[in-house]
Amino acid sequence: MLDLLLRNCTLPDGRSGVDLGVEDGRIVALQPGLQAQAGQEIDGAGQLLSPAFVDAHFHMDSTLSYGLPRVNQSGTLLEGIALWGELKPSLTQEALVERALAYCDWAVAKGLLAIRSHVDVCDDRLLAVEALLHVRERVKPYLDLQLVAFPQDGLLRSAHALRNLQRALDLGVDVVGGIPHFERTMEQGAESVRLLCELAAERGLRVDMHCDESDDPLSRHIETLALHTHRLGLQGRVAGSHLTSMHSMDNYYVSKLMPLMAESGVAAIANPLINITLQGRHDSYPKRRGMTRVPELLAAGVPVAFGQDCVMDPWYFGGSGDMLEVAHMGLHVAQMTGQAAMRQCFDAVTTTPARILGLEDYGLDVGCRADLVLLQAGDPPEAIRLRATRLLVIRGGKIVAATPAANARLYLPGRPAAVDWRRA
Ligand code: FE2
């Protein structure tokens, strides 16, 4: 007797009419015409069943703080950092926890069940670290939260950042972060990359660095990150986040850089909503888009995930935990409009970030954890086009969120009564 049987689903790889059986929180059967009984049986009605969404890059300590204490006037990364600095002294643990939990509710409702969040370690009190460690435990039954120790004000530029980062890791923060482009000089940026990679190697941890989040084509810390990844044997455990300077780099240099990244096993994380908003602010026209070279990196063999980065905070007014919105923007900014490219955009918010985070037993195979989302769409490109309704969100085989199908009634003479979004 199965716990759950989902009948007649379409999978992201195109298989249709598939039945999925769940027992003890795991997928135990995946085939058409499954002969089985279950405690709960649901008709998938041919809709798209995907592994749950994964966000490879987020800031849960600043989320939902938009307007506190004021709004970012210039719209730049640097004013955002200054604004966050103004807010930090007035943060309380209760408010941090409350906002983070509220965001996790939004995430679950949108089928987002795993998030890698950076947490600022530059406050000597480590208030945000303690708050998010608490939240990580609170949400564990329904959401995997992975934390990155992030020296927002610079590892070498901020007085106690290195010590605080080590304290955060001692407290149980999972991943080593960094921000080399915000250090005082290029040399100090490179030195911070070396120190952080060595720290991660010593502790057996992953690395995810904010790297070259700038329009400066000479911001090349990704090269140093690839070097130390290779030197220290960290292949497959390191990600460079943002990498926006690659947008502005010389093509010849990039033709050397991308194979170096692939050889070193460094992954890239682009944040399309934030990159298109924060970058290019010093340009007149033409204005650069700022996002890193996504299709070119993929073609070079570098895994690329899309992250949400910010939701309603000092850097960004918008967002809602909707990874299809993120994929939608990524697809547009990168002009990834081919069928295969659109599927890569879907992978960039599901399977690719799952690999970058090192999530165990993620996916749609027998034996995988039954962390799933049923979407009101026929295939991944349609899911992105419609930012499809999350009909059901399933965690460990149990329904944790449901949203009614999006259907509109029409009151037009001589027209059908309902809209079918899928025949547009
Ligand atoms: Fe970020």
Portion of residues in beta strands equals 15-25%
Overall strand count: 16
How many distinct helices?
14
- Main sheet specs: 8 strands, parallel
Describe the structure in your own words.
There is one protein chain. This protein is an alpha/beta fold and about 425 residues long. It has two domains: about 1-50 and about 365-410, Roll (Urease, subunit C, domain 1), CATH 2.30.40.10; about 55-355, Alpha-Beta Barrel (TIM Barrel), CATH 3.20.20.140. Helix content is about 35%, strand content about 20%. It has helices spanning about 75-85, 95-110, 125-140, 160-170, 185-205, 220-230, 245-250, 250-265, 270-280, 295-300, 325-335, 340-345, 350-355, 380-385, and strands spanning about 1-10, 20-25, 25-30, 40-45, 50, 55-60, 110-120, 145-150, 175, 205-210, 240, 265-270, 305, 370-375, 390-395, 400. The strands form three sheets. It has an eight-stranded parallel β-sheet with strand order 6-7-8-9-10-11-12-13. Helix 4 links the parallel strand 8 and strand 9 (about 175). Helix 2 runs parallel beside helix 3 (about 125-140), helix 5 runs parallel beside helix 6 and helix 6 runs parallel beside helix 8. It is globular and about 65 Å long. The model has no long low-confidence stretch (mean pLDDT about 95). The site of fe (ii) ion has 5 residues, from strand 6.
